[in-house]
Amino acid sequence: MIAVSIIEDVRDVREGLVILVNGTAGFHCVSAYRTMEDALANIGASLPDVVLSDIGLPGMSGVEGIRILRERYPTLPILALTVYDDDDDVFDALCAGAVGYLLKNTPSARLLEAIREVVEGGAPMSPEVARRVVVIFREFRPPKRATYRLTPQETELLKLIVDGHYYKTAADTMGISRSTVAFHLRNVYTKLCVHSKTEAVAKALRERLI
Prior knowledge:
Helix content is about 50%, strand content about 10%. By secondary structure, the protein is of the alpha/beta class. The chain folds into 2 domains: about 1-140, Rossmann fold, CATH 3.40.50.2300; about 150-205, Winged helix-like DNA-binding domain superfamily/Winged helix DNA-binding domain (Arc Repressor Mutant, subunit A), CATH 1.10.10. A 5-stranded parallel beta sheet has the order 2-1-3-4-5, with helices on both faces. The termini are far apart.
């Protein structure tokens, strides 16, 4: 059984998704939430195999929620299911950690197939979204060896983080305060386009930044 959690603020849509999932052999909806805040507060009690999340939610946005969910549960796959198909929403959701991006007009059979694909390691996208992603990556051509314009202090801090240091030990090593470490680390995250220490370390090692 593939356990699915749903985050969707529109009641009819949410209940329709629950009925679809529970009414299909091999699938089970373990939880459904109206807001991302509700999901963050409760989803850890019974982690699903896949999360279906809307992007335009009341309160905390779906994109921010996806980012937090991936930080808390790095292996939890999240599939964005939304009406929004513009470049910014697609890019933001994928950067936040969504493994796929489907539009709400996706046929039910395709949606269930996409959930199964996610469990099997796939990254399903609606055709319209896939075309946009291709265009985005054609236009985005990073240099062969990116420097990200890190300052010497930011580079030193990144190396310490890669070596396993925490705020306090990094501050002691660099001779600066923990608040200054936090300031530099935020700048590092922004420049690398990452959202956590884990992502920063992975990118630093992958692109040989240190």
